[in-house]
Amino acid sequence: MDIKIKIKSTNLNVFYGEKQALFDINLEINQNEVTALIGPSGCGKSTFIRCINRMNDVIDICKIQGEIEMDGKNIYAPNTDVVSLREKVGMVFQKPNPFPKSIYDNVCYGPKIHGIAETKDDLDQIVENSLKKAALWNEVKDRLQEPGTSLSGGQQQRLCIARAISVNPEVILMDEPCSALDPIATAKIEELIDELKTTFTIIIVTHSMSQAVRVSQKTGFFHLGKLIEVGTTEKIFKNPTNNMTQDYITGRFG
Amino acid sequence: MTKEQRLQKRYSAEKRFKWYGIISICMALLFVALLVTKVLSEGTSAFVKSTIEIKLNFDQTALNLPEKPITEDLNAIDFYSFAIDQILKTYPTSNRDEEKELIKLFTTDFEFEVKDFFLANTNLLNQTVSFKITASSDLDQLHKGNYAKNISEDRRKISNYQLKIYDHFIQNNKITKVFNVYFFTNGDSRNPEIAGIGGAMLGSFFSILVCLIISFPIALLAAVYLEEFAPKNKFTDFIEININNLAAVPSIVFGLLGLGILLNVFELPRSTSLVGGITLALMTLPRIIIPCRASLKAVPPSIREAALAVGASKVQSVIHHVVPLAMPGTLSGTIIGLAQALGETAPLLLIGMVAFVVQVPANPLDPSASLPIQVYLWSESAERGFVEKTSATIMVLLGFLIIMNSIAVYARQKFEKKWI
């Protein structure tokens, strides 16, 4: 299978007020692959993925220089519509954050506001498909009207994944999606990520080396706002070229 | 100091603080109990009134009616003379002065009471029925035991002759106490026995309604804008300081504003609950904005991010998620703000709602009083009959406040459960 570049960042610099958070990030994300971003806390991984769906726009003091291209188009071009960008780039957060509404409403909210579904039947179908893709359908199909907040942590996170894929995105950003979950729920989500990559391009931020090895094909190592090293996951973990990478993955710092 | 001594000291300090707390709560409860006891002991008697039972003989000739009376004939009846005739039959009098004293024991409105009764029951023509006529306030107070009988006559509101009539009525079981409907349906009056808070209640209701309609949407939108959309800079800080200041401005200042702008510049009708409501809305606005902002701030940012991440616009994320989640806090803040407005007196004094209004207002454009103003007006009156009415009005006002605050607490608890 030939590899296609989905997202490409060029000389990306991000500032929070006076403080520079990212320095000249040049990174290519391949389509239908899982790209893992690793690095110590505060190194800018989350900032980077929040640039991809422009979630940083919400923060007043955040300034962005450089370019991020998706399918060859700069998403920071003035004529980009943020809402349709976020429709294409879904996001799953560190802490499960379902809406305090029913499971059904959680999943159908996105399709509803984007007018993806014409009829109630279409909407039901989308909800069912999304929950099935998120491997949650069998657990919740009998209680779709119960509040999403009544689910367990792992179920809530899968609900959030279902919500993210309900609008048919092309890219899914995951910001430490398993950090609040137990190992069993984590295993389920990892399995899910593996399946999802056939349809979506996935970028995952993680603090777990083993998780990066298990789920990703490509890994980028961030440190103090700089992208230190990037390559196939196999190469990064077996044969890193940079000493810092070597130290981090073996647990000598960070 | 040894370890044991230090331990002992810590224990006694904790015990001491616990007692300080208990004492403060007892003090607070004591003051509340004092207030409630005073109001209750003075006011409860206002909910009943004394009536004197008289025989009404609706004789055709006495009423000056033709053989087959039509509506116009009925309206032309001189009920004043008819009622006086009937009243004079209740006790044998020997001269004009005695007649006057007898009539004075009945409400000044006796004519209308008889008229309303007869026009509602025209089938009683040519029959004799007993009818309970409202007693005058002085007899009412005497009957309720608020007047001392054993002082010299010139210091009494009730003369010796009237006392004799009273004793006569009592012996014949003519005086009974009934529920005082007038108190809830009538407007203000110079005569305590027919004065009521109906006008004041409706005036208060209209004011609060106008206040709610104006202040709630403005406060909610202002709070949403400030909390969700406004950039955080010096200017928004300045606005925030001003809102907090406005919430602390003495309410009489808003009354002056209402007087100067609403009445003098826009020439809105004086003494109306419309102007009262607008003035109260100005006063309540900052007091609602502050809790609205607090409850918006309490909505976790993760909800906003979740909505934005599925591609909701900023406005959609706010309207679909943030505002509904903030609603319980917003509503209870609003109700508490309105409860404060309900008890507000000073600004209404300045826009003329202190006028003496007999008519019960039909809409917000009619002149009217409000409950706290009614308390103020009656507390200044000389008649003994208004004392109990003042306390009873306070009871009604407190009742409304308790109801509103309970709704606020209930709304908050009921709807907040949903999203945990």
Summarize the structure.
The complex is a heterodimer of chains A (254) and B (420). By secondary structure, chain A is of the alpha/beta class.
Q: Can you offer a commentary on this structure?
A:
The complex is a heterodimer of chains A (254) and B (420). Chain A contains ten helices and ten strands. In chain A, a hairpin with a 2-residue loop joins strand 9 and strand 10. The mean pLDDT of chain A is 89. Chain B is mainly α and 420 residues long. Chain B is 64% helix and 5% strand. In chain B, helix 1 crosses helix 17 and helix 9 crosses helix 16. The model of chain B has no long low-confidence stretch (mean pLDDT 90). The chains are: A alpha/beta (254), B mainly alpha (420). Chains A and B meet through helix 2, helix 3 and helix 6 of A and helix 13 and helix 14 of B.
Oligomer: heterodimer
Runs of chain A with pLDDT <50, length 5+?
none
- In CATH's first tier, which class of the largest domain in chain B applies? Mainly Alpha
From N to C, what is the helix and strand string of chain A? EEEHEEHEHHHHEHEHEEHH
- State the CATH superfamily name of the largest domain in chain B: MetI-like
Low-confidence stretches of chain B: none
CATH architecture name of one domain in chain A: 3-Layer(aba) Sandwich
Give the termini distance of chain A in whole angstroms: 36 Å
The beta-strand count of chain A equals 10
Summarize model confidence as the mean pLDDT of chain B: 90
